[in-house]
Amino acid sequence: MCGIVGYVGPRRATDVLIGGLARLEYRGYDSAGVAVIDGDVLEVQRRVGKLANLREAITVKPIEGSIGIGHTRWATHGRPSEENAHPHTDCSGRIAVVHNGIIENYSDLRSELAAAGHVLRSETDTETVAHLVEAYYEGDLVEAVRKVLARLRGSYALAIVHLDSPDEIVAARRDSPLIIGLGEGENIVASDIPAVLEYTRKVLALRDGQVALVTAEGVTVTELDGTPAEPEIIMVEWDLAAAEKGGYEDFMLKEIYEQPKALRETLRGRMGADGVIQLSELAMTPEQVAAIERVTIIACGTSYHAGLVAKQLIEAWARIPVDIDVSSEFRYRDPIVDARTLVVAITQSGETADTLAGVREACERGAKVMAVTNVVGSRVTREADGVIYTHAGPEIGVAATKTFTAQIAALTVLALRLAQAKGALSEERVAALWDELAHIPDLVEAELEDLGSIDECALAFKDATSSLFLGRGSGVPVAMEGALKLKEISYIHAEAYAAGEMKHGPIALITPDIPVVVIATQGHTYEKAVSNIQEVRARGAQVVAVATAGDDEIAHHAEYVVTIPRVSEQLCAIPATIPVQLLAYRVAKLRGCNVDQPRNLAKSVTVE
Ligand code: M6R
After folding, report:
1. 3-243 and 453-590: same fold?
2. How far apart are CA 276 and CA 595, in angstroms?
3. Distance between CA atoms of residues 258 and 601, nearest Å
4. 176, 353, 526, 559: least CB-packed within 10 angstroms?
5. Do residues 158 and 151 make contact, with C-beta atoms less than 8 angstroms apart?
6. What is the pLDDT of residues 177-191, one digit of tens each?
7. Which residues line ligand 1 (CB under 6 A)?
8. For 234-250, what is each residue's pLDDT tens digit?
9. Alpha carbon of 89 to those of 14, 43, 161, 393: distances in Å?
10. Cα–ligand 1 centroid distance for 387 (angstroms)
11. Which of 487, 605, 607 for mutating ligand 1's site (highest number of atoms within 8 Å of CB)?
12. Which fold has domain 453-590?
């Protein structure tokens, strides 16, 4: 929910901190701050609002010093204000702390600290950590932090500096992400990989419960009880260019256009020479697959919509019943999950708190849990029994785009594999579906070059206050994703419905001011979708139809038509998604919205 960075090495720390925070700003942008040890002074600068405000303050009044910590905030405890911005300091002003997560027992700790004479100046949970370190410090920062951690309930990724040990950063994590970029004579602590890529691709993934002592010369990792830990080192496959805009106006637009590549990478190597779908991550024998009685999918937001597509495919091809739940509901409703259930947890970031809690719940009930994630080494990869990676590269825009279609690609592979293992589809059918699936990246590439008509559709939405998205079959999750994209980046209210549901209530909303998007691609419900278009048009609505190339009929029914390449009905979710993503993007730009950093949102939701 927040982004943290720490730097120690020969460079000016603020340069690295501000650069790193800029790459983490997708995690929160309510306020930003840095604390840098400059000689015998701990300099703290904090500003409300976007990082640009802090950057400007530091340009006016530069801070020297080559060790420091920084933070970009998504407010949980306390409104966005300068007092509540991180870093937080202790009473002496010699200790500074940045934090991502929630200290659940902060209220008790505040009372205890106040009773002991500490003066707390903010409304945050984090400030208690700075004062606790002050209370426990006896000359060894790591030891003091260890004692503090034993007092904390909740989640944290922490980076802490103390003027008494001006060459050290102490970092620790529990239930919030934290990595350390390992450079030559310098090391960088961060919430996510893009913040360190300018300096190194060698990354230490700190595990839950570990504490790291970070100096310019090296990193020592120990468990919470002080025993030495074996660090997990990852070489990052992508480079800094992948985490930059590369000539595009926004990350979101770049990421929309990166979809052909993301799809190709995700599908690469999935078909064996023997005609068997390669999914060793499933690690199940045909007998074990045969014993699966049900699949349960858990996910949030966009990942949930990918799960809806997967439900349709697994049921259609593997003939296994599939339940799907938003993670925050699943975990609290005593779900029926046991050793005969395959639970599929979909999370782009691998850090979503509700999905992780759902994974734990499922594991406790004896289910086999497969994670589908885009982030190597993320939390879910350690908690699930197996991991299917999407290879979409880093997604910086808060609105998920390329990771959504990559999730659908990965889940389509899973559905085919389950069908094959169950013997529910013939070899010929699997081969034909695979051929078509493998061709989708090329189709999407061509589609992206030919979507100029979206600009005209966007004008119909520009001044709307509300809109509807309708679809049938695989068009339902696409409609839901289109509505989510539009509301999160353009702030236009958008509702999605299975088109057949419209007459059961939503049609009452239709007026000429409400534009309606109908996913009307060809398939066995095409004519029904056309009827739905007629019904809303009869009530004055303007319709944008997402239709199949070569459908000459549809132009007689809808004001605006956007076409997608012809693919078979069950595989059309990916191509049908591209126009709704671009529509949301263009509408948001027409309305002057910040598409990469929409208000109130953060990329990964690491709190419940
Ligand atoms: O990292 P996750 O896939 O678990 O994230 C789930 C949602 O928070 C995420 O999809 C969110 O809905 C995006 N803002 C959608 O664009």
Report:
1. no
2. 41
3. 23
4. 559
5. no
6. 899 999 999 999 999
7. 300-303, 347-349, 352, 355, 398-400, 488, 601, 604-605
8. 998 877 777 788 889 99
9. 18, 11, 10, 36
10. 18
11. 605
12. Rossmann fold (3.40.50)
Ligand 1 atom closest to residue 603's alpha carbon, by position in its atom list: 14
**Whole-prediction pTM value?**
0.81
Q: How many residues belong to the chain?
A: 608
Ligand 1: atom nearest CA of 373 is 3
CA of 28 to the centre of ligand 1 (A): 14
Measured CA to CA, the distance from residue 192 to residue 23 in angstroms comes to 9
Q: Directed axis angle between helix 402-422 and helix 259-267, to 10°?
A: 30
Structure tokens at 577: 């998604």
For 344-391, give the DSSP string: EEE-SSS--HHHHHHHHHHHHTT-EEEEEESSTT-HHHHHSSEEEE--
CATH fold label, 3-243:
Glutamine Phosphoribosylpyrophosphate, subunit 1, domain 1 (3.60.20)
SS3 call for 238: coil
| Ligand 1 atom at minimal distance to the Cα of residue 399 | 16
Question: Which residue type, as a one-letter code, is found at position 248?
Answer: Y
User: Which positions are catalytic?
Assistant: 2, 603
| The residue to which tokens 């139809």 are assigned | 545
Q: Which of the following CATH numbers is that of domain 251-448: 3.40.50.10490, 3.40.50.150, 3.30.930.10, 3.40.50.10800?
A: 3.40.50.10490
Q: For residue range 402-426, list pLDDT tens digits in order.
A: 999 999 999 999 999 999 999 999 9
- Say how many Å lie between the CA of residue 577 and the centre of ligand 1: 16
How far apart (Å, rounded) are the C-alpha atoms in residues 201 and 221?
A: 19
Q: What share of the chain is helix, strand, coil (3-state, %, to 5)?
A: 40, 25, 40
Residue by residue, DSSP assigns 472-483 as STTHHHHHHHHH
Q: Which atom of ligand 1 is nearest to the CA of 400?
A: 16
User: Minimal CA–CA distance to 67: which of 13, 129, 147?
Assistant: 13
C-alpha 489 to ligand 1 mean position (Å): 13
**156 in Cβ contact with 76 (< 8 Å):** no
